[in-house]
């Protein structure tokens, strides 16, 4: 670069001389010199000209008479004058240059003025911070807990100020905010270490709020707060205060984990003290007594431990055995315990014990986790030996666990007093609860993450499930438990009855374990789907009268269908018929389309007269109102059934479904206004083996959801086929049923016919459903495809489901309808064919052989007349 100022040293001398002259000048007439304009060597080319011009002006002011002292005024005056002449002759700008310099100078002045104005208008500290500091000192300490929500809102609004670096600066407007933040920290520390309990409780809440919004800036100064919180947990404060202190400490330890310096200064030093103080609250005062703290505080401590163990495994390692022994009473509680443990505490305690495998040295976490699962499986089979001793089991273990003979005398018992095992129990009900708790424990082992990859004994888990699921009734309405399973004659009848009452809970816990396995392994469970469906159907049929069993079955099947539903065979789909019928029944019953079946009067005539005389309210006929009352399902039960209904129509191969079941699914979707199920039905139309299509329910979907965008897309994209003769592919349900009658007879007469009978029993009470359904849902539509043909209306007639269950009636119908004639679509249907339901009902209610032969003769006469 070519230097713009060859005589830079001369200019520096001029600057020095001029400054010295100003310093030695008279005090009454000082000349201000701008220091920023003296260093000419640091300026760029254009700015140098401006600076030179200013320097010349400054020298001109200095060189006026009287500016220097008299002794050396002449010599120094000539020296400075010569230097000024050199600068003026070399750097004095021309006219254009002067104009440019003036413009640039004015711009620099404007920028400097703007900077001074912005610094003067710097944002003041937030009003919320000022109000917060003032209220902490003005509100009485006894009233601070009531004002805590308001104070925390102020803290949240001060997030930017609390998270900003708080460095004291001498001439910065941020110093006021820093002072207020320091005042806030001091006030909170004073309240935390004060003597008033209300003030300490409020201080804990303020500390947690400040830590959450302040980040690293507040964490690095939180050591006094940690010490105060630990003293509260250790000393005799109230349990709500200790509960909040434990949660706040856990939050601080989690937030400091990314910062190694803060971990060494805060976490590593104080976590052992924190663990010891918490264990003192969990441990009971003596063996067999309640813990020192309430169960809510114990749950908070368990949650804190399970969150801190994975990130501070080395610190928790010396306390692993103490933690396991302290919470073992909460893992799988029974009636033998003197304390009722809530489900939330059970899951929190299990999570703590499961996370203890993280404290194992090096790569031993996988082995520790495997030991936990193996010990649980051994405990489960040992408990099952005691609980199921009234049953002569046919189960044989395939994973190394075999059943053992137990003494039938005395009361069943189990458990151990060891600190590493579950507590002892006695009594069959307690043993059943222990089985349920162990199944839930195994589910949690699969639900929570692990430190390293682990080997899961899937075969052993399914083996344990199959042991309890094999004890079931295939026909609960026609079989007793003594008839369904082989029992041990040495066991009392009372114990057997107690076992039959506990079996549904054990079944549900086993199915819940399978659901967790499906959610965890997903595609890896596909090879085991046949075994899972076998257990599901057996348990579902055994406990179909229990709503909880049905809900558990719906949830499990809803997890299976997305994985293996599209590839199921016809035989597998037929196995699911009891669940399809039960799902539709539950939904229609909840929607109010099922009436209660009136019970036949069993009292004698004299007894009825006596009761009528004794109770005059019978004349008011309260039964008329009681019939109209409908049964409503729980929200979880209804949600599971709704999801399963849509899954039946979207995930199952529709051509494997029977026409009656597909009609029942479509009808249930319409009556319950299930949008997802109706969309699935429209997108997955029913076709038989000949390619004939089932009528679509798109008109009903359009009527119930006219504003739905998805429905509009379907209406605009689903067009009628233009292929000639395609309308002949639309077949009625009755016609398809006639073609499959022979297959149905073979399925019912050969092997196990229970699924079909179960379906018939589940839909017997649906016969009167069509009549009240029309006015309630307003189903009649002008373009209704179900009214286009008389035979198509049977697709939603439940009477057709029950009419063909009798073998004799099927033979009669075959003789009556053979040979079947093809029905032309373009012909108008007779008016009397639109109401076939009363005839079917009369046919079902009549057992007279004369009427059957009479009907056959009348049909023969009609055929002769037609010919």
TrEMBL record:
Pfam families listed in its UniProt record: RIX1
Compositionally biased tracts (Acidic residues): 736-749, 857-867
A Gene Ontology cellular-component term: nucleus
InterPro entries: ARM-like, ARM-type_fold, RIX1_N
Organism superkingdom: Eukaryota
Subcellular locations according to the entry: Nucleus
Keywords: Nucleus
Signal peptide (UniProt feature, chain positions): none
Record field: compositional bias (Basic and acidic residues): 802-825
Predominant place of localization: nucleus
Region annotation (Disordered) ranges: 399-424, 734-756, 801-867
Boundaries of every Pre-rRNA-processing protein RIX1 N-terminal domain copy: 128-336
Gene Ontology BP, a term: rRNA processing
Key word Nucleus present: yes
PANTHER family with a match to the protein in the record: PROLINE-, GLUTAMIC ACID- AND LEUCINE-RICH PROTEIN 1
UniProt family annotation: Belongs to the RIX1/PELP1 family.
Protein's name according to its UniProt entry: Pre-rRNA-processing protein RIX1
């Amino acid at each position: 670069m070519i230097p713009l100022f060859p005589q830079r040293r001369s200019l520096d001398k001029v600057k020095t001389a001029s400054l010295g002259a100003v310093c030695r000048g008279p005090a009454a007439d000082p000349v201000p010199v701008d220091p920023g304009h003296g260093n000419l060597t640091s300026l760029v080319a254009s700015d140098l000209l401006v600076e030179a011009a200013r320097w010349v002006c400054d020298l001109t002011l200095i060189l006026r008479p009287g500016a220097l002292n008299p002794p050396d005024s002449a010599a120094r005056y000539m020296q400075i004058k010569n230097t000024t002449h050199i600068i003026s002759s070399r750097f004095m700008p021309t006219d254009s240059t002067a104009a440019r310099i003036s413009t640039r100078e004015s711009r620099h002045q404007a920028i400097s003025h703007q900077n001074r104005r912005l610094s003067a208008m710097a944002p003041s500290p937030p009003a919320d911070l000022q109000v917060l500091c003032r209220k902490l000192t003005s509100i009485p300490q006894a009233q601070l807990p009531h004002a805590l929500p308001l104070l925390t809102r102020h803290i949240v609004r001060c997030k930017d100020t609390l998270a900003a670096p708080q460095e004291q600066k001498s001439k910065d407007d941020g110093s006021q905010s820093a002072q207020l933040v320091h005042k806030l920290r001091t006030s909170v520390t004073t309240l935390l270490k004060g003597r008033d309990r209300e003030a300490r409780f409020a201080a804990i809440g303020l500390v947690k709020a400040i830590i959450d919004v302040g980040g690293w800036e507040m964490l690095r100064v939180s050591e006094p707060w940690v010490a105060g919180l630990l003293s509260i947990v250790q000393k005799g404060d109230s349990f709500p205060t200790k509960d909040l202190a434990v949660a706040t400490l856990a939050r601080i330890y989690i937030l400091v984990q990314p910062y190694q310096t803060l971990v060494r200064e805060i976490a590593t030093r104080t976590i052992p003290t924190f663990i010891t103080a918490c264990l003192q609250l969990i441990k009971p005062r003596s063996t067999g007594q309640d813990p020192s703290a309430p169960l809510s505080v114990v749950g908070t401590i368990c949650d804190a431990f399970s969150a801190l163990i994975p990130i501070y495994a080395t610190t928790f390692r010396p306390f692993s055995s103490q933690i396991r022994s302290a919470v073992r009473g909460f893992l799988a509680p029974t009636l033998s315990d003197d304390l009722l443990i809530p489900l939330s505490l059970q899951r929190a305690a299990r999570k703590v014990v499961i996370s203890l495998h993280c404290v194992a040295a090096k790569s031993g976490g996988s082995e520790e986790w495997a030991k936990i699962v193996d010990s649980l499986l051994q405990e489960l089979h040992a408990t099952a030996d005691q609980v199921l001793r009234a049953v002569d089991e046919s189960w044989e273990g395939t994973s190394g666990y075999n059943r053992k003979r137990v003494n039938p005398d005395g009361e069943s018992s189990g458990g151990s007093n060891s600190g590493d095992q579950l507590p002892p129990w006695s009594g069959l009900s307690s043993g059943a609860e222990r089985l349920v708790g162990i199944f839930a424990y195994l589910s949690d082992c699969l639900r929570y993450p692990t430190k390293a990859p682990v080997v899961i004994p899937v075969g052993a888990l399914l083996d344990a499930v199959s042991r309890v699921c094999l004890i079931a009734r295939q026909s609960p309405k026609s079989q007793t438990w003594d008839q369904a399973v082989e029992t041990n004659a040495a066991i009392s009848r009372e114990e057997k009855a107690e076992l039959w009452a506990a079996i549904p809970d054990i079944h549900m816990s086993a199915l819940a374990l399978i659901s967790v396995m499906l959610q965890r392994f997903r595609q890896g469970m596909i090879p085991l789907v046949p075994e899972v469906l076998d257990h599901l159907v057996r348990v579902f049929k055994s406990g179909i009268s229990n709503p909880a069993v049905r809900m558990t079955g719906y949830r499990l099947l809803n997890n299976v269908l997305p994985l293996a539903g599209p590839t199921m065979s016809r035989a597998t789909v037929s196995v699911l018929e009891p669940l399809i019928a039960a799902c539709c029944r539950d939904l229609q019953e909840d929607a109010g389309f099922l009436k209660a079946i009136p019970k036949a009067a069993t009292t004698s005539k004299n007894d009825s007269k006596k009761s009528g005389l004794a109770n005059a309210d019978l004349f008011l006929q309260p039964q008329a109102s009681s019939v109209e009352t409908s049964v409503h399902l729980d929200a979880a039960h209804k949600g599971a059934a709704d999801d399963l209904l849509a899954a039946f129509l979207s995930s199952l191969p529709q051509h494997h479904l029977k026409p009656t079941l597909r009609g029942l699914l479509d009808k249930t979707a319409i009556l319950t206004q299930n949008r997802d199920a109706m969309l699935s039905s429209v997108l997955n139309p029913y076709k038989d083996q000949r390619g004939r299509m089932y009528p679509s329910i798109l008109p009903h979907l359009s009527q119930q959801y006219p504003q739905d965008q998805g429905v509009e897309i379907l209406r605009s994209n689903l067009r009628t086929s233009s292929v000639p003769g395609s309308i002949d592919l639309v077949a009625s349900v009755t016609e398809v049923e006639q073609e499959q009658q022979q297959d149905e007879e073979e399925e019912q007469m050969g092997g196990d016919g229970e699924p079909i009978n179960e379906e018939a029993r589940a839909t017997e009470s649906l016969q009167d459903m069509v009549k009240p359904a029309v006015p309630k849902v307003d189903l009649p539509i002008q373009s209704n495809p179900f009214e286009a043909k008389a035979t198509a209306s049977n697709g939603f007639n439940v009477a057709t489901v029950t009419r063909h269950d009798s073998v004799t009636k099927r033979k009669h119908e075959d003789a009556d309808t053979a040979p079947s004639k093809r029905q032309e679509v373009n012909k108008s249907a007779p008016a009397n064919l639109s109401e076939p339901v009363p005839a079917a009902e009369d046919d079902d209610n009549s057992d007279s052989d004369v009427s059957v032969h009479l009907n056959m003769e009348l049909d023969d006469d009609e055929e002769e007349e037609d010919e």
